[in-house]
Design brief:
The structure holds 3 protein chains of 3 kinds.
Chain A (H helix, E strand, L loop, with lengths): L7 E5 L9 H5 L5 E7 L5 E5 L10 H4 L6 E6 L1
Antiparallel strand pairs in A: 1-4, 2-3
Chain B lengths: L7 E5 L18 H15 L5 E5 L7 H4 L3 E4 L5 H11 L5 E7 H6 L2 H9 L5 E6 L38 H6 L4 E8 L3 H19 L4 E7 L3 H4 L3 H15 L3 E5 L13
Chain C lengths: L2 E6 H11 L4 E4 L6 H13 L3 E4 L3 H13 L4 E5 L1 H6 L1 H10 L3 E7 L15 H6 L8 E3 L4 H18 L2 E7 H5 L1 E6 L26 E2 L9 H18 L3 E4 L6 E4 L2 H16 L4 E6 L1 E3 L3 H7 L5 E5 L6 H9 L4 E5 L15 H10 L2
Parallel strand pairs in C: 2-3, 2-4, 4-5, 5-7, 6-7, 11-12, 11-14, 14-15
Antiparallel strand pairs in C: 1-8, 6-13, 10-12
Helix pairs in contact in C: 1-2, 1-7, 3-5, 10-13, 11-12
Classes of the chains: A mainly beta, B alpha/beta, C alpha/beta.
């Protein structure tokens, strides 16, 4: 019987982002890619493209030097 | 960590003792990760109202501006001495930590650091080692690797031109006043967790009144290396980790007294 | 019944610190102030106060900075060559507006100079290091005064949020005189709300004490605040003493141990019918410029007596603004050509007579 996985929400603060792409690089499930859009100071910020495979490991947030990502688990 | 609302649980987010403010560091500078780890540790140990940080001079000191705890700025290299003054001034009741970089700690401040442990101070130091001087534009540091190009070793560091990299964590482990010394990194999630554990242990040694705690955290400086952040991280994984082994070099629960004269 | 004891000038500063409720001493041994650090090492722990022997003078001044930032009364002591070592730290303390006491028991300079007395640090003490800050400089000329000025120093430091230099010298430090040990009374001082104690003390609003007034906040505000502070100090804290000035045709200007010599020379001169007076600055900064300027209306000869090649004489020249002639009795007039040579009162008398 398959257990229903609780959804993970990844919130990106695009204005804090400096486009280093550690998040996209560190995600073990490739749930983030650096987007085409830029923020007000010219950095490309990440987009959360794959909520289905996200395990909620938090790597994207923990390894973000600007803490521009927050990860929540829906309760 | 706090819960923002009852419909969801925060897994990873901004620690309470870190201000909701944009980091003043460069894109891809891992110092921000280390600053966040220190804030998480402060939150988890419940010492936010009873901790004083001493910032040195350098990029690591940017944490002073975004950490929501009391801070005293020290002159270049003097953080352990200023920290001693603060700790003694507060009757040893506050937790005092220093954040220092390559120049501040390993060059001008190496004497102050060693002597703070020789004096038996119970402080915690987090050493931000990125093998160069970022703030001033990318010069040679005591921790620069052999062959590494910097603005003052334009042909790459060589023993005859620039010297040898210093391994501070191992050096600290050899001092009797130091009860914890470790070297960590923040390039992967696993390393992040080890770094947090190490920094928490180092703080706990002070809280428990045991002795000096020291954690060296390696990182890559993209502008120093003239590389994009992810390329800099690759350079880091190939070269920094080859020069500086990660691990715990000392973890004791008591400062060793080898010999003592009995005064009658 | 007030206690009276026979102590050295160095120890008197230690007693002064105790009576002023100084709780933290950080220092490093250096001749000729070792009696002071040793006194602190003995007495402070007995009183439950903190004594730390640091590894260097840049460490000890940094510790004073850290402790003063937490609001306690902290001090250090040193001598000439190591006073130079402390300069960056003192400039840092000035930028942070921290109250504290730094004692300089002058020895010969430059470099390691001599291990004995001199008055060769007048300019560095009064002018300070980089950045153009000011500090109050107090100069005792007796062991009793050393004891009392130390207490005054801590009061002024807290009153203005400024560091104080107590300028002594090898002779002052090592001479023994009897001292009446009494605690001086001072007006009440405000709370140190700016002090770092952990944010819990301020309802979790953090305190950040920094040394970069030109990077953090408004440089202009810092300068304005400093300027107002220094103006207030200049208006209110000038201290000096005069002896037989009213009818003097020559006024000796001297501080510290050479003021004692000058005082005797003044009496010797008076015995011979020469009308000599003595002006003794107690605050070397703020310098008693106006008082000297006023004396220059009537007295046209000033003889500066100082154990160096001419430093305070510059301030006397500025004060007199050309209204009088100024001469110098300096280190070249010592009785011996070695580090232990002293300016003696008979030499001062000779120079008084030669001053035409």
């Amino acid at each position: 019987m398959e257990k229903k996985k609780k959804a993970i929400e990844v919130e990106i603060n695009k204005e804090f982002c400096k486009g280093c792409s550690f998040c996209a690089d560190s995600c073990p499930k490739e749930c983030l890619i650096m987007g085409e859009e830029i923020n007000s100071v010219g950095y490309n910020f990440p987009v959360f493209i794959n909520q289905e495979d996200c395990t909620g490991c938090g790597a994207c947030s923990f390894l973000c030097p600007d803490i521009a990502i927050e990860v929540y688990q829906v309760v | 960590m706090e819960e923002k609302d009852s419909s969801r649980r925060l897994i990873a987010g901004r620690p309470k003792s870190l201000m909701q403010a944009k980091s003043p560091l460069c894109s891809g500078c891992q110092h921000g990760i280390v600053g966040r780890i220190i804030s998480e540790v402060i939150d988890e140990l419940g010492i936010m109202g009873n901790v004083v940080g001493i910032g040195g001079v350098g990029c690591h000191a940017m944490s002073m501006f975004v950490m929501n705890v009391d801070f005293v700025q020290a002159l270049h290299g003097r953080a352990p001495a200023v920290g001693t003054g603060v700790k003694r001034g507060l009757n040893e009741e506050a937790v005092v930590f220093t954040i220092q970089g390559d120049g501040d700690l390993a060059a001008i401040g190496i004497g102050d650091l060693i002597n703070a442990t020789v004096r038996g101070e119970k402080l915690t130091t987090v050493f931000f080692n990125n093998a160069g001087y970022g703030t001033t534009g990318g010069q040679l540091a005591p921790t620069t690797l052999i062959g590494q190009v910097t603005t003052t070793t334009p042909n790459g560091r060589r023993p005859e031109a620039g010297g040898f990299p210093i391994h501070v964590a191992e050096l600290m482990a050899g001092l009797p006043g130091v009860v914890y010394s470790a070297r960590c990194a923040v390039n992967t999630l696993a390393q992040f967790k080890r770094t947090k554990k190490a920094i928490k242990t180092a703080f706990q040694k002070q809280i428990d009144g045991i002795g000096y705690g020291f954690v060296e955290v390696l990182s890559a400086c993209p502008p120093l290396l003239n590389m994009r952040p992810t390329k800099a991280r690759e350079w880091f994984e190939k070269h920094m980790l080859a020069e500086y082994p990660l691990g715990e070099f000392k973890n004791v629960n008591e400062r060793e007294i080898k010999y003592q004269i009995e005064n009658n | 019944m007030v206690e009276k004891i026979l102590i050295s000038g160095n120890e008197a500063i230690g007693y002064g610190a105790i009576y002023a409720d100084c709780t933290h001493y950080f220092g490093y041994p250096i001749t000729p102030q070792n009696e002071l650090i040793e006194f602190m090492a003995r007495e402070f722990p007995k009183l439950g106060r903190t004594f730390v022997q640091a590894e260097s003078e840049f460490a000890s001044i940094s510790m004073v900075c850290g402790a003063a930032a937490t609001g306690v009364r902290a001090m250090t002591s040193t001598a000439s060559t190591a006073f130079s070592l402390m300069q960056e730290g003192i400039s840092g303390i000035a930028s942070m507006e921290l109250p504290c006491l730094i004692v300089n028991v002058q020895r010969g300079g430059p470099g390691a100079g001599s291990t004995q007395h001199s008055q060769m640090d007048y300019l560095i003490a009064t002018r300070g290091a980089h950045g153009g800050y000011k500090n109050i400089v107090l100069a005792p000329f007796s062991v009793q005064e050393a004891f009392e000025l130390t207490q005054l120093a801590f009061y002024l430091a807290d009153k203005y949020r400024i560091h104080i230099i107590l300028l002594s010298d090898g002779i002052m430090g090592q001479m023994y005189e009897s001292v009446e040990l009494k605690k001086l009374g001072f007006p009440p001082l405000p709370e140190k709300n700016w002090a770092v104690k952990g944010s819990a003390a301020h309802n979790y609003v953090r305190t950040f004490v920094h040394n970069s007034p030109g990077i953090i906040g408004s440089y202009y505000d810092y300068m304005k605040r400093s300027d107002e502070k220094y103006t207030k100090i200049k208006e209110n804290e000038v201290r000096y003493e005069t002896y037989e000035i009213e009818d003097a045709e020559i006024v000796l200007v001297s501080y510290g141990s050479t003021a004692r010599v000058s005082l005797r020379a003044m009496y010797l001169a008076r015995d011979e019918g020469i009308r000599v007076g003595l002006f003794r600055p107690i605050t070397l900064w703020p310098f008693p410029r106006e008082a000297i300027n006023k004396i220059a209306d009537n007295t046209k000869k000033f003889l500066v007596v100082e154990d160096c090649m001419g430093q305070m004489i510059e301030d006397v020249e500025l004060a007199v603004v050309g209204k009088a002639r100024i001469g110098l009795v300096g280190s070249m007039d010592r009785n011996l050509p070695t580090g232990s040579g002293m300016i003696l009162s008979r030499k001062v008398l000779e120079k008084i007579k030669d001053f035409n």
